[in-house]
Amino acid sequence: MLPQDQVDVWKKRVAGHAHPMEFAIDLLRAIQAHHGWVPDAGVELAAEILGTTPLKVEELATFYDKIYRRPVGRRVIRLCDSICCWSRGGVELAVYLQDKLGIALGETSADGAFTLLPSCCLGACGDAPAMMIGLKTYGNLSPERIDQILSAEADEARP
Ligand code: FES
């Protein structure tokens, strides 16, 4: 789940801290960054490092929608389906993306490059319609712009 040297660093960081659970999300993100997603073994490792139960970690892991408890593609596309984006062509773009990637919302492309997920507001309403890929937000989307973005992201996402 994590290389031993990283486990040791996390254990040192947590040791003696009055509120170890404050590290939980950062630790889960580290596991996800290393493994691609957070399997049960990742939850168990985080619980061991934090000195708590897997259930406590699981409660957090399943609350935050950017912690992935199932395998995802190398890039996760989060397409906003909230009101501003919806009213500015978001539904049509959702159809376009699904057709282009050959997958439905919630699925991963056959080459493992992209997972497509619906998302609540991304805070980019002024640039609606918008989507996030990884930590980048893309606004003013059109089919042409999506083509350019996916092409660049696919290059970066090559294994
Ligand atoms: S409604 Fe889509 S970014 Fe806010």
Features of the shown structure:
Glutaredoxin, metal-binding, 2 domains, alpha+beta, Thioredoxin-like_sf, NuoE_N, binds FE2/S2 (inorganic) cluster
In the CATH scheme, the class of the largest domain would be Alpha Beta
Structural class designation: alpha+beta
Question: What is the rounded Rg?
Answer: 18 Å
Contiguous low-pLDDT stretches (5 residues minimum) are none
- Helical stretch tally: 6
What is the residue-averaged pLDDT? 95
User: Might you state the CATH topology name of the largest domain?
Assistant: Glutaredoxin
Ligand identities: FE2/S2 (inorganic) cluster
Biggest sheet descriptor: 4 strands, mixed
Q: Could you give the order of the helices and strands?
A: HHHHEHEEEH
Give the strand tally: 4
When the domains are counted, the total is 2
Q: Beta-strand percentage?
A: 5-15%
| Broad shape | elongated
Architecture of the largest domain in CATH? 3-Layer(aba) Sandwich
Going by CATH, what is the homologous superfamily of the largest domain? Glutaredoxin
Give a structural overview.
The chain has six helices and four strands, in the order H-H-H-H-E-H-E-E-E-H. It has 159 residues and is α+β, with helices and mostly antiparallel strands. Strand 3 and strand 4 form a beta hairpin. Helix 2 runs antiparallel to helix 3. The chain starts with a helix and ends with a helix. The structure holds FE2/S2 (inorganic) cluster. The site of FE2/S2 (inorganic) cluster (FES) has 12 residues, from helix 5. Belongs to the complex I 24 kDa subunit family. InterPro entries: NuoE-like, NuoE_dom, NuoE_N, Thioredoxin-like_sf.
